[in-house]
Every structure is written in C-alpha cells, then in structure tokens.
Amino acid sequence: MDERRRAAAVIVRDGRVLMMHERSRRFGGGEWWTLPGGGLRPGETAEEALRREVFEETGLIVSDARYVLEMPYPSGMTSVFTVTVADGEPRLGRDDGSGPEQIGIDWLPVPELPIETSGVPVPPLMVVLPTPGGQADAESVTGSLSGTTAGEETATNGDVTARRRSTTK
Predict the structure, then answer these.
(1) Where is the composition biased (Low complexity) (predicted)?
(2) Are 81 and 10 a contacting pair, CB within 8 Å?
(3) Where are the beta strands (DSSP E) in 41-165?
C-alpha cells in the first residue's frame, strides 16, 4: 500500500487559479500543469506541508487554509485545501534538483461549477501536455484527472487540454 501523502493548494485570484508548469527529469521530459503543493515530511501535518510547499514553490505566504477533500495523485493521496494568500505576486521557487523541474507559473481560468453547486472549484490536480512526439507522457497521464484547463493558447492531446504559455525562469 502506498503511504506517501501530499498537500495541494487551490489559490484563486480574480477568477483564475494558480498553477505550476513542470517538466519530468526522466527520459522524454513530459510536461504538465499542477497545483502548488508537495509531499509531507515526517511528523508534518497536511496543512503544515501545504504552507511550506506554497512558500517554497511560489514565494506566497498562506494566510488561511481550508481543507476540501482527498484526491489520488501519481505520488500518493493528496489533501486539497482552498487557500488565501497574503498580497504579492507569485514567483518560481528555487529548483533543488529533486522531483520535477519547475519551468513556469501562471494564473489559469477557474473551472466553472453548475449554478446550483456551492462548492469550491477544484481544477484537475494535473493537466498533461503532449510530448514532442505527439504522445502524452505515460507517467503523467496516469495522474491526470478528468477535466480540462482552457486558455488563449492551448495544446490538445485526446481529451487533455492545457494552456502552453507560462512565466518562465
């Protein structure tokens, strides 16, 4: 049984959600968009990990975090929180060479909810971009959740759509 745990942040500002653009360090270099967040360290709660990871990845300070739900992710079950951050613009965190390479960060449109729903608009935790050969990275597809992210510039592979533009290093 996989005991790895993660925490992810849904940070919404002006009708857009903050997403990280990442690239695999493995052969093929697949790319995807994902919510800010990461793994829990020993003895750390999901909320503590969330606050640490959001700061490390975006430079933003979490002022309020509200637990929403648990979702599967390729590297373990993920506790998803809706998050309010202190004022400021996000910036890419320092790359420590472990895990996927962070190559961009951007505010993407928030998925729409049916009018009768009063829930939190949780985007897919991961939206896969096609690799140069036209096939999505198999490891990334395993972790993608249903739904798409729309934008002005899009790349499509089957039912997976993601915006290509990002703020890069």
Answers:
(1) 147-156
(2) yes
(3) 62-71, 77-85, 101-109, 126-129, 154-157, 160-163
Q: What does the CA dihedral 66, 78, 39, 28 come to, rounded to 10 degrees? A: -130
Q: What is the pTM of this model?
A: 0.69
Distance CA 77, CA 81 (A): 13
CATH topology of domain 5-168: Nucleoside Triphosphate Pyrophosphohydrolase (3.90.79)
139: left (phi over 0), alpha (psi -120 to 50) or beta: alpha
Amino acid 150: pLDDT: 32
Digit-coded pLDDT (tens) for 131-147: 555 444 333 322 333 33
Q: Where are the domains of the chain?
A: 5-168
Residues found in the chain: 169
